[in-house]
Amino acid sequence: MAPGSDRAPLERERIIAEARDLIRVGGLESLSLRRLAARLGVTAAALYAHVTDKRDLLRGVAEIELAKLAEAYVQDPDMDPVQRLREQASAYIDHARAEPELFRVMFLFPPQLPDSNVPTESALPAATTAFALAHSAVVTAMRAGAIDCEDSLLTTFTLWAGIHGVATVLQLGFSLPPESEEQLRDEMIDRLLAGYGVR
What tens digit of pLDDT does each residue of 113-126 get? Predict the structure, then answer.
């Protein structure tokens, strides 16, 4: 940094934060190392001291978003297990609605599945944490007799598919009134849970 410069030092956290802002405003397609370097007032080559490539940048952004999602998941052990499933579904959909462009980045990297003996090199720790919280909610509901299913992992994927579907539909630009969006969310959750014996 030149003497007298008030520019903040270049650090990985700052680079990822700037990349996140680029995506948030301009979409995933707006992110390039050259554009990012220009915003930071450095050369693209200077970024490589802190990130390996564009995919590394995206991993950093995904980590932030998935950590926020995990924080939003209810983890109260005293909560009714079915209500916990509902609250997690709502948190997931709310996150997608609040940050539609960043939501896309979250699914570029998979979680490590429970009890997997095969390491997944591309697995993202924050994705693993978020998935583990969702899976734990299903296991808790099963053990409490609140839902009737034999395979907790398959049930977690089934609920995730339904919730992700609603989140995706709400990003298609239909401009539904808020009450209709909430009705769609609740209808999906109610129908799926009814299939597992919840009335």
Answer: 877 765 667 789 99
Cα–Cα distances (Å) from 97 to 39, 80, 104, 106, in that order, read: 27, 26, 11, 13
Residues of the chain with CATH 1.10.10.60: 12-51
- Angle at the Cα of 63 from the Cα atoms of 58 and 64, rounded to 5 degrees: 100
pTM above threshold 0.85: yes
What is the CATH number that goes with domain 12-51? 1.10.10.60
Q: Which two tokens stand for residue 106?
A: 């979250």
For 63-195, the fitting CATH number among 3.90.1150.10, 1.10.357.10, 1.10.150.120, 3.90.550.10 is 1.10.357.10
* Closest listed residue to residue 161, CA positions, set 116, 122, 115, 107: 107
pLDDT digits (tens, 9 = 90+) for 11-22: 999 999 999 999
